[in-house]
Design brief:
369 residues, alpha+beta
Length: 369
């Protein structure tokens, strides 16, 4: 009797774990409207390169150096700087996180604009970073960090690792201006799903209403829920958001098959179903082999010349593939077993899924990347 009780408790505990594992936190499924980053961009100059900078063809680099020196009190023409090889022009990009304040540090990424071979060992000169409105929100400066290198010998042999013309400066940007935004000015809190779905948004609405105690939250579409910040809810909205982010939501995932033809990758959701269908698949193999033969006259021959003859052999073969019946409507595991039984490779599966969709037997959305 004790063993039976322990077995029942073990099964119940396993089912509980499987149920919890399917749920996800609300903060992993949705965002709070207004909590977002902003892209910044700027034009800068990297100095200190060891002869690997922009060459004579990059006229904007020498012009930029001339302008920089003029601001420092040194006047020199751009033509006099045409042979610089230790300087490179770069495009500097960064993302300003939400609620960043002046003095905060951000990471910046640099990408070469000219024909510099590598940015290794360079230092970025102070570069203003602007937002979409044209205002300066951060300033970047500092030594570059590369995840690769390139080595070239005098004979022209080169060895390269990763991408040496793109670099980063961790915490190399300093925020100079905060973006003014009051996320509670409207008097409402809007929760926005990253993957809109009517079923999931109704579950979010029910979970939020369970926390606030009344039916205040209202789903306005398949992506968002609005919660009025009145009374006690408006007194401490930050604490309310922290409570809502920890809610366990069971997302409803649509049936979808994603195919990447470039890499041969196939991803199928658990809700994918296939109706009853007879399926056969075979590969047509064509082989063309060329062989060059040389015919020369014999040793005792009085006349003759060498002849070059090319022989080509073309063979065509097709793999045998009988019809296999996929009984429907079947689950994802049965679909995988049936296709594996055909001996299908990932490339074959791409053609099979496309044919199943055209035949109307694939009960899922087919997405081709």
């Amino acid at each position: 009797m004790m063993r039976v009780a322990l077995f029942i408790i073990s099964v119940a505990f396993t089912l509980l774990l499987s149920t919890v594992a399917e749920a996800a936190r609300l903060k992993d499924l949705a965002d709070i409207e207004g909590v977002r980053g902003n892209q910044l961009v700027g034009y800068g100059i990297v100095v200190g390169l060891q002869g690997t900078g922009d060459k004579k063809g990059a006229l904007f680099t020498s012009q930029s150096v001339a302008n920089m020196l003029e601001r420092l009190g040194i006047r020199v023409g751009a033509d006099d700087l045409s042979k610089l090889s230790n300087v490179a022009a770069v495009l500097v990009t960064a993302e300003l996180p939400a609620f960043s304040r002046p003095g905060s540090k951000i990471d910046v990424t640099l990408s070469s604009l000219g024909d510099a071979s590598t940015l290794q060992g360079g230092v970025l000169v102070m570069t203003p970073l602007k937002g979409a409105d044209g205002k300066v929100y951060a300033v970047a400066q500092g030594p570059l960090s590369l995840g690769g290198f390139i080595v070239e010998t005098a004979t022209g042999d080169t060895t390269q690792k990763n991408h040496p013309t793109v670099a980063r400066i961790p915490k190399g940007g300093t925020v100079e201006r905060a973006i003014p935004y009051d996320m509670f000015a409207s008097g409402n809190l809007r929760i926005v799903l990253r993957s809109p779905d009517f079923t999931t948004i109704t579950r979010v609405q029910a979970a939020v209403n369970k926390v606030v105690g009344r039916n205040r939250a209202r789903a306005v579409d398949s992506a968002s829920v609005i919660l009025p910040l009145d009374g006690e809810l408006g007194a401490a909205p930050i604490h309310l958001i922290a409570r809502l982010e920890e809610l366990d939501i069971d997302p409803d995932v649509p049936a979808r098959v994603v195919i990447n033809e470039r890499t041969g990758t196939i991803i199928m959701g658990e809700m994918v179903r296939v109706s009853t269908v007879a399926l056969a698949h075979g590969n047509l193999n064509i082989s063309i082999r060329s062989e060059t033969q040389v015919s020369q006259p014999g040793v005792l021959a009085e006349a003759g010349e060498t002849a070059i003859v090319e022989n080509q052999d073309v063979s065509v073969g097709e793999e045998a593939g009988g019809l296999s019946v996929v009984n429907g409507t079947v689950s994802l595991g049965q679909v995988v077993d049936a296709l594996n039984g055909l001996g299908a490779t990932p490339r074959d599966l791409i053609a099979i899924f496309q044919a199943l969709k055209e035949a109307g037997a694939l009960q899922a959305e087919l997405v081709i990347m």
